[in-house]
Task: inverse folding
């Protein structure tokens, strides 16, 4: 006599133990998918390290934040007709006993409106900030009978300054340097940007300073 068939009928419900195991397995797989795939790819979170290993973390990217091309009416990006240039100007100044014509001078460069100048200068020869004064300003060069526009950027005592300037108008921009120490000094000025050097003797360079030469040759007597 043959043995009775002990297999479950086709439509018999799943045993409780197998049901619990299947449920736990599904939950574990779902958690693995969330922690190992969805979080790294969608939220840049990788608690298991699987996103980095699988490359899924590279799929995440923050939402773009758009910024306008202008701020307060000023363009963030500009193009200029004049080429970019750099210059080094060493300006010798005598001590205060040498007289105003030797201990102070004005040095400027020519700039078009909205052009950018990056500058850095320091004083060599004294370590006392109160011995040196600078007046950073600019103005237009009007024709006879026309009014002059003047912009004052900064006036202070100090031995160095680093920064950038955007010209508010067509004209000349620069500094009045004054040495009141008991020793002669040299102002080492470095410029970069979109500007033109002013020839010696013209407005803005009445002292006749020559750029890109050592200090002993920069201010012929």
Result:
């Amino acid at each position: 006599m043959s043995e009775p068939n002990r297999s479950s009928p086709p439509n018999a419900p799943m045993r409780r133990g197998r049901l619990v195991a299947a449920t736990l397995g599904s939950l574990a797989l779902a958690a693995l998918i969330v922690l190992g795939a969805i979080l790294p790819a969608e939220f840049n979170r990788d608690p298991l390290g699987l996103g980095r290993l699988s490359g899924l973390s590279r799929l995440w990217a923050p939402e773009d934040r758009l910024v306008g091309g202008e701020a307060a009416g000023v363009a963030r990006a500009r193009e200029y007709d004049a080429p970019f240039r750099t210059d080094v100007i060493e300006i010798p100044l005598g001590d205060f006993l040498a007289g105003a014509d030797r201990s102070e001078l004005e040095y400027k460069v020519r700039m078009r409106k909205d052009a950018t100048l990056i500058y850095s200068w320091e004083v060599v020869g004294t370590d006392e900030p109160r011995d040196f004064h600078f007046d950073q300003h600019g103005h237009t060069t009007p024709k006879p009978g026309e009014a002059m526009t003047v912009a004052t950027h900064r006036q202070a005592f100090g031995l160095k300054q680093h920064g950038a300037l955007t010209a508010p108008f067509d004209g000349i921009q620069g500094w009045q340097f004054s040495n009141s120490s008991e020793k002669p000094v040299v102002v080492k000025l470095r410029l970069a940007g979109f500007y033109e050097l002013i020839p010696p003797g013209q407005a803005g360079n009445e002292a006749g300073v020559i750029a890109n030469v050592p200090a002993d040759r920069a201010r012929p007597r």
User: Anything to note?
Assistant: The first strand starts at residue 70 and ends at 71.
